[in-house]
Amino acid sequence: MSEVTEARPREISPALDFLAGTVAGMAAVVVGYPFDTVKVRFQNPQIASKYRSTAHAVFTIVREERIRGLYRGMIAPLAGAPPLNGLVFSTYRSLLQAQLGDEPTTPTLTQINLAGAGSGVLSSLITTPAELIKIHQQSLVRTAHSPAALRDRDVVLHIWRHHGLRGFYRGIGATALRDVGYGAYFAAYEATLRYWPRPYSASADAGGSKLENHSLAALLTAGGTAGVAGWIVTFPFDVVKTRMQTTAAGAPNNPYRTMWSTIVASYRAEGLGVFFRGLAPTLIRAIPVNMVTFTTYEAVVHLCT
Question: Cα Rg for the chain, rounded, in angstroms?
């Protein structure tokens, strides 16, 4: 009898996937939000020149805006990102199962990549308005003595009054292309665990909690690798998305009206390097954030199965 038949993995329900992904998303937001603020500041062409490096940006924001400057606009992602993360994990599992059918088969890395990319595209329907609000908040540069920053509700009302529902989906094309990176994200996680120096067991990758078959070091390494892989593949589209979302489509002489005009205008003005601006703080953030994300996810699954 084969090893897969002898050790049938416990199936993870969509509800548990959603719960584990949501809890993991909460931990990830708290850990990684300051680095995300720095990334957005670097990508905003109006204020990018203010900062020389990641460390300089952090110190400058803290000096001028205090610690709260690094967490400005966190309410929207803290409310939206955790359940969105749960949706990504549960959608990923559903798309993966749709490819595998009812057989207890170990998925290939190609199947994992396709399921991850599909979950990213679907999640962009929710990601786009949440990130639009967040970026409007993070792009506000204020001193410690400035009036209080706009509340998320004020940003939402402003967008609704001036642009309607369509305004919340500005940059959705670039967001969807960026979130295709979830394919590389999940594939890198699974590949790292499969090729980790240990006796390989196919059943360990077919379902259930990976805490039962992998060390904490393996899970942390796989999570960090996943975060880096997911961003490197599609980071230029994140730059395009940020530039589009920091401006209004109908603004006079706006070079960032569409995704294509943003790419062309950015390249002509700043060269190829502009599409990787903010990559350093993003990768620095991606490693601890995704270590926390996947380890928390696996811990919740382990506790509930």
Answer: 20
